[in-house]
Specification:
The chain is built from nine helices and nine strands. By secondary structure, the protein is an alpha/beta fold. The chain folds into two domains: 168 residues, no CATH class; 48 residues, no CATH class. The strands form three sheets. It has a five-stranded mixed sheet with strand order 2-6-5-3-4. α7 crosses α9.
């Protein structure tokens, strides 16, 4: 069997150590101000309680259900276009199986994240020539993008320099550095925003199995304490 050739190792070699690469990525990643994150969470909670549809990224039909008078069924959409047309009709209701929250599908997989960031901060990201922030990528910290409690919440977003963002798209088991970075970003989010508290759900939004180990929590606390976390300032007019 041939040895694995990992391009990430080439990128790591641009830095004197993995710690320096980690500091580079985290130090240039932009998080959102706490008050903005809290207010947006309140807005989503209100929408849920009013029975409004909360956006998710389209995925397999098995994550959702249709509610009929006496039973539920799994939808049978042929693809994203058909699913999007269905949830765009206000008379149709589709629900997320795990949370029982009414959902609608994001039109291109990234429309709502861009809209929410603009509505909450005044900045346009990933909007082509109209962008106020360029060469940054919107990253979901937890990749549960079919879950309405994760997909459109600012506590689950950060902006990562594009030349580093590819790392967070990799599986944790693909490289020890990937695991370290992804778990550290999760720990920073937990320490900054306390998602389980601000979501005020009937159970923990981030369940125990999705919480990073204590070593990452301790590392995140130190970064926050030492003012090593950068925030996207509010640009609202």
């Amino acid at each position: 069997m041939n040895a694995v050739i990992d391009g990430l190792e080439t990128f790591k070699n641009l830095f004197s150590s993995e710690d320096d690469l980690l500091k580079h990525i985290v130090g240039h990643t932009l998080f959102f101000e706490k008050n903005v994150v809290r207010q947006q969470a309140i807005n989503i909670r209100t929408a849920i309680r009013l029975g409004k549809a909360v956006p998710v990224r389209y995925t397999s039909n098995g994550a959702f259900f249709l509610q009929h008078k006496v039973k539920t069924t799994t939808p049978n959409f042929k693809g994203r276009k058909e699913a999007l047309q269905f949830t765009n009709n206000e008379e149709n209701s589709l629900f997320h199986k795990e949370t029982k929250i009414r959902i609608c599908f994001d039109r291109d997989g990234n429309y709502y994240p861009k809209k929410i960031i603009f509505d909450s901060t005044g900045y346009k990201v990933s909007c082509g020539v109209q962008s106020d922030i360029v060469n940054y990528t919107i990253a979901h910290i937890w990749d549960k993008t079919d879950n309405p409690l994760y997909f459109s919440l600012l506590w689950n977003y950060c902006l990562i320099p594009t030349h580093c963002a590819f790392i967070t798209d990799k599986r944790e088991d693909s490289n020890p550095f990937v695991k370290h970075l992804k778990n550290l970003l999760k720990a920073v989010s937990i320490e900054l925003y306390n998602p389980n508290r601000i979501m005020d759900w009937n159970q923990d939004v981030i369940q125990e199995e999705y919480i990073p180990d204590k070593e990452y929590i301790s590392e995140a606390r130190k970064l926050i304490r030492d003012n090593q976390i950068n925030f996207l300032a509010n640009n609202q007019k």
